[in-house]
Amino acid sequence: MKKLSLILLVFSFSGLFAQPNCEAYKYQGDTLKYEACIKAMEAGKHYQFSKEYQTILDESLAIDPTFDYAYWAKSIAYLKSGDFVTWKKLIDKAVVLNPKEHLGYRGWCRYQFFRDYKGAIKDIEKLDSLVDYDIGQGQNGTYHLNIAKGLCYKGIGEKEKAIAIIENQIKLNEAEDFVGSYDYLHLGVLYLETERFEQAIELFKKQSQNNDLAENQYYSALAFLNLDKPTEYKSSLEKARKLYKEGKQISDPYSNPMDKIYLEDIENQLKKVSKNINDE
User: Fold this and answer.
1) CA distance 213 to 74
2) 127: which of 28, 60, 74, 103 fits an S-S bond (Cβ 3.0–4.6 Å)?
3) pLDDT digits 0-9 by tens, 251-278
4) DSSP output for the chain
5) Distance CA 191, CA 160 (A)
6) Does residue 219 have a pLDDT over 80?
7) Is the pLDDT of residue 191 over 80?
8) Which residues is 11 bridged to in the sheet?
9) What is the Cβ-side half-sphere exposure of residue 131, based on CA atoms within 13 angstroms?
């Protein structure tokens, strides 16, 4: 099965991966955008946090103030440096000028960096209403934007809606043999949180086959605990600890993903196991 994690090698957050085709503007007879595009491409030779990088993009916008790519490219450095106010002003301009191109990116950033769940939902749903094709992946390639939308609904407490959205997207992904690295895990956790323990375990088994993680075994343990299966509960916790120490866990270079756990969480559950055994 294809792993979306491989896409991280292609869709690196740090690169200008969405470079426009300058020749297309020339072909369309849009001389200003062609010249602005050629100028903007010079920024790729410079460090994103450098004055030269921003100056070249400013020069691009001086040629054509409606060149959305330059606003988007400028915004990246501000997001990385933590200047979220400036990032928002720039990305908002890009979205106004070219919503189909930039709504998905802004929505993903709202989810990933700011936990602005309602804002992310609004952007993703707006994008979906504007296009008649698949809205695609989030910026880092790990999640389809609909999976991210489902997680946003979970974030605002609408778990049933989250389940419906993620179930539907997983079906579509399975049809393409392209399930995300953490999709089964997140849906399994939603089942766990809504007391569908048997369904949760089935999803965790699928996650194990696809990409086993410490989180997967940890949440499996909690499901087994609720089903009064102490042997499976303990075994899953021990697997979780082993996987965690091997570095097999949910990870993201820029933020803590939803449903992520820590070694302390596993150890605390194992202490409960030991206490129960001692009490007996």
Assistant:
1) 36
2) 103
3) 888 888 999 999 999 999 999 886 665 5
4) ---GGGGGGTS-TTS-TT---HHHHHHTT-HHHHHHHHHHHGGGGS-TTSHHHHHHHHHHHHH-TT-HHHHHHHHHHHHHHT-HHHHHHHHHHHHHH-HHHHHHHHHHHHHHTT--HHHHHHHHHHHHHH-SS---B-TTSSSBHHHHHHHHHHHTT-HHHHHHHHHHHHHHHHHTT---TTHHHHHHHHHHHTT-HHHHHHHHHHHHHHH--HHHHHHHHHHHHHTT-HHHHHHHHHHHHHHHHTT-S---SSS--TT---HHHHHHHHHHHHHHHHH-
5) 9
6) yes
7) yes
8) none
9) 17
Look at residue 11 in the predicted model and tell me its pLDDT: 34
Ramachandran angles phi, psi of 181, nearest 5°: -60, -30
- Whether residue 198 contacts residue 224, with contact meaning beta carbons closer than 8 Å, is answered with no
Q: Which two tokens stand for residue 144?
A: 């389809």
Q: Phi and psi for 123 in degrees, rounded to 5?
A: -65, -45
* Res. 8: pLDDT tops 70: no
Any residues with CB less than 8 A from the CB of 272 and at least 6 apart, and which? none
